[in-house]
Amino acid sequence: MGAIVASRADRGATRDRLVAMIPSLRAFALSLCGDPCRADDLVQETLVKAWDHLESFEEGTNLKAWLITILRNTFLSDYRKRRREVEDRNGDQDLAIHPEQYGKMDLHDFLATLAKLPPEQRVAIILVGAEQFSYEEVAKICGCSIGTIKSRVNRGRRRLADLLDIGSAEEFGPDMTSAAIIGHPTGSCRRD
Amino acid sequence: MNHNINNNRARRRDHLDRDHKYSWQRQESAARSQLDMEIQARLGRRLRISYQELVDEPIPDKFIKLLNELKKWER
Fold first, then answer.
1. In the prediction, which pLDDT does A167 show?
2. Among A20, A74, A94, A154, which is most exposed with the fewest C-beta within 10 angstroms?
């Protein structure tokens, strides 16, 4: 308990471990909220909260999962608060994400498409599909059952596949696996 | 006797029809789950590629400064 920050040297080591997590935290935050400025605010809040509560981190457990849990909770309470404010002000206005600040087209598509999923599905899809956590780990992060995570991932996958038109086999062009199945020669990755 | 033989033949034919139907359904459901797996694989690949682009972004200085500040605080 608290051993992680017991001495000056430990604090230095903790700082280094947190720095190493920043790229993942930023990617997760931006995938969740689609706005680079808000994403960085989320990461900053997560790092400060983590530092303030280091004694509640169990040494030897997954630091990344712990930080992701803090970020996810911060994002969701922020999201709910904003939604209440928006509903109070104007029922029609939605919480649409505006990822146009991000330059690359593929990333823009990716973020814009993710933004169409309900936030809890977004979390599950990113953690299972992109961060490659196990269902069990994600269930722990989200404080719910493995079955709930599986159903969020399945519903999210179906919706994403529809939105990205992946079922039509047009989105990516054939890769090694699909080439064998759909009988195309392997070739360059087509992106529209 | 004849009646029995005819009955048996009819039963065999039913079995064959049913087997054929089941095998056709099996093939169709296998093809469907193959397609699902294919879609999932494409989706997973797309997610990981886009996500990796985000992860590969350099860390802004403000975060390093923030952590250096935090490190200085006595707890």
1. 66
2. A94
Q: Give the 3-state secondary structure of chain A.
A: CCHHHCCHHHHHHHHHHHHHHHHHHHHHHHHHHCCHHHHHHHHHHHHHHHHHCHHHCCCCCCHHHHHHHHHHHHHHHHHHHHHHHHHHHCCCCCCCCCHHHCCCHHHHHHHHHHCCCCHHHHHHHHHHHHCCCCHHHHHHHHCCCHHHHHHHHHHHHHHHHHHCCHHHCCCCCCCHHHHHHHCCCCCCCCCC
State chain B's mean pLDDT as an integer.
82
- Which of B36, B49, B71 to probe by mutation at the A interface, max A CB count within 10 Å? B71
- Sort residue A2 into left (φ over 0), alpha (ψ -120 to 50) or beta: left
Q: Which residue of B has its CA nearest to A171?
A: B42
pLDDT per residue over A166-181, tens digit each? 765 444 444 434 433 3
Q: Tokens 């169409």 label which residue?
A: A116
CB of B65 within 8 Å of a chain A CB? The answer is no
Please give the average per-residue pLDDT across A119-145, as a whole number. Answer: 96
Tell me, what's the ipTM? 0.73
pTM of the model: 0.73
Residues of chain B with Cβ-Cβ distance to A27 below 8 Å are 51, 54-55, 57
CB of B69 within 8 Å of a chain A CB? The answer is no
